[in-house]
Design brief:
The chain is mainly alpha-helical. It has one domain. It contains five helices and no strands. Helix 2 packs antiparallel against helix 3. It is found in: Cytoplasm. Belongs to the COX19 family.
Length: 109
């Protein structure tokens, strides 16, 4: 298409001239973490996924920590853990969740 020319109506409305409609996500949009408030939790989760060859199961505790950080910082709406699929992971006040999973992984080796 030459510079400055207008696209044809069929190009604007998709195939067969229909207007393409999108559907919003179920939970709505959420702000990105531009201030990197939860960057450490995200890195721990990504490192675990890398170590576990993208198997999410062993890394669920890190994902939960990341979601908790996002909820605490107002980067996502607070939600019950059961609705997010994390009801089976308990909070422990004495040990950080990440430390608990590291201890479990060290015992396996």
């Amino acid at each position: 298409m030459p510079v400055g020319s207008q696209p044809s109506p069929s190009a604007m409305f998709g195939p067969y001239g229909r207007i393409q409609q999108t559907t919003p996500p179920l939970k709505g949009s959420f702000p990105l973490d531009y201030e990197k408030e939860c960057h450490l939790q995200m890195l721990k989760y990504m490192a675990c996924l890398n170590k576990e060859k993208s198997q999410n199961g062993p890394c669920r505790i890190f994902a939960r920590d990341y979601f908790k950080c996002r909820m605490d910082k107002g980067l996502m709406d607070s939600e019950e853990w059961g609705r997010l699929g994390y009801a089976d992971i308990e909070d422990k006040n004495n040990l950080n969740n990440s430390e608990q999973i590291n201890i479990k992984n060290q015992n396996k080796e």
